[in-house]
Amino acid sequence: MLLNIALFLYGQLEGRNINDVISDSRQYSDLISRLKTQREESDFEGMFEDVTQIIKQDKEDGKESSASLVRLRKKLKYLSGFTSQVNECLQQAEQMRGKKLFSNKKSYSYNNILKTAEDYSRIADVKVVLVNDMCIEKTIEYKYTYYLLAVCMIVMIYECFKERDNGMWQIVHSSKSGRMILALKRFIFVWIYAFVLTFIYFVSTVIVSVLLYGVSGIWKAPVQSIETMSGFTIYVSALFNCIVCTCNVRKYNFGVIYCYKKQKCCTYRQCNICGSRVSAL
Hints:
There is one protein chain. The protein has helices at 2-13, 18-38, 44-60, 67-97, 108-121, 134-141, 144-160, 169-174, 180-213, 238-253; strands spanning 268-270, 277-279. By secondary structure, the chain is mainly alpha-helical. The protein has a two-stranded antiparallel ribbon. The two termini are 30 Å apart.
């Protein structure tokens, strides 16, 4: 766990100290609050123009715009185009259904188009919001947890079969409870071990991320408000998405990928229309 926290902090600091990171996050939150007082909360295009104008003015004055301003501009660009992007995917799905190339109703392409339209229709009315989502975004982008969990699982599974190396395999497996019962107990133990380890690693990462970047109302915001989760086509809060991520990490530790009927049940699948990964839950 300490190694996981150390790697997360190392990736977030990037040569800075912790106070600089916290100050940058507060500045980002202050910019968001200031924009919300000047514009309506849903006027992302107007906010985008205001921030673009500030960055343009800084460039004319020979000054370098702050990282918070650049990040905010990128965020507003995504939010202002979210609804139009979803509507465009729905329109393209309707157009592609009428093309002869995809007219075979038994083909994977045709059914994938229908599934994509169904997925995006669930978030067509989602109202994304502007909040400081750095806490969740940085947690999602952090990948070393997967590698550390994989190493821990490999070591644990290897320890479960140590009798193969010390010459005790024949004695253990010839005993009364040395086969099915032993295998069942080990299977249950490995599942519990994976769940507890994943929970500790994930929660420790979230806690450190919250301390660095704050939360600022992101837990109640639709998960689509986070640019990293733009392809998630189920309307849930960011908090619920964190729980789902924990469950998915635990599943992947065992190499269990629930996939059948050409990836219709995977957590993500490829969209034939826009090429992005969309949720297939």
